[in-house]
Design brief:
- It is a single chain.
- By secondary structure, this protein is an all-alpha fold.
- Among the domains are: 30-137; 165-206.
- It is 94% helix and 0% strand.
- The protein is built from three helices and no strands.
- Helix 1 packs antiparallel against helix 2.
Length: 226
């Protein structure tokens, strides 16, 4: 029962790890998709900022044009005051109307500038955050690739070591068998040589050429000879 519990625990652990791996992989894909969407939104923001800048430019031109008109009618009023007071008053009224219009345009211009400034700050901050996120995703992906390569290399190294050990053991067994066979062959040759030498001695003795037991006469002659 304990073995079954361990087996079930191992299976659950493997399933959990596999699920986490899938979730992590999915999270990376989600981040990459969000990065693409964020880039698209930033392009739209840049376009919106361009439009605001264009409106700022037009509003500034309007304010400058009104300022020029104000200065022009002020000059007319100064010239007409001595000759035609009513004309001078009309010019003064025109100056008042132009200044009122200029104040309104200046407010729009200030609002556009403030909006453009805030938008520029937000866009730059978003781009900085996006760049940092891209770097982190790239680093995670690169690290994952390196670690997978390291695992593969380690697995192959362990497998190679195991194979080398098995091959070395097999080689040792072969060498032992060969050494034993060589010893057996040498022993067989020695036995064959001994058998051949004994047979030759026997044949020589039988022929009375060599070997055999010396006769009593021969032994006595040898002793007396000394």
């Amino acid at each position: 029962m304990s073995v079954w519990r361990k087996l079930i625990t191992a299976v659950k652990g493997g399933a959990t790890e596999a699920a986490q791996s899938v979730a992590d992989s999915q999270a990376i894909r989600i981040l990459e998709q969000e990065i693409r969407e964020a880039k698209d939104e930033l392009r739209k923001s840049d376009h919106a900022r361009t439009q605001i800048l264009a409106k700022c430019k037009l509003a500034q031109q309007k304010v400058d044009s009104l300022q020029a008109s104000v200065e022009q009618y002020e000059a007319h009023a100064r010239k007409a005051v001595d000759t035609d007071r009513q004309l001078a008053l009309d010019c003064a009224q025109k100056v008042g109307d132009l200044r009122a219009e200029q104040d309104g345009e200046q407010k729009y211009l200030d609002q556009f500038k403030q909006s453009e400034k805030q938008l520029a700050t937000n866009i730059n901050q978003a781009k900085s955050n996006l760049k940092r996120l891209e770097q982190q995703v790239d680093m995670v992906k690169a690290t994952e690739s390196v670690q997978k390569a390291q695992v593969a290399v380690s697995s192959r190294h362990l497998g190679a070591n195991s194979k080398m050990k098995t091959a070395t053991e097999s080689l040792s067994r072969i060498q032992d068998k060969q050494n034993l066979r060589n010893a057996e062959l040498q022993a067989a040759e020695e036995l064959a040589t001994e058998e051949s030498s004994d047979d030759l001695s026997k044949r020589l003795a039988e022929a009375g050429i060599a070997g055999g037991n010396a006769s009593a006469d021969d032994e006595l002659s040898r002793i007396l000879g000394k």
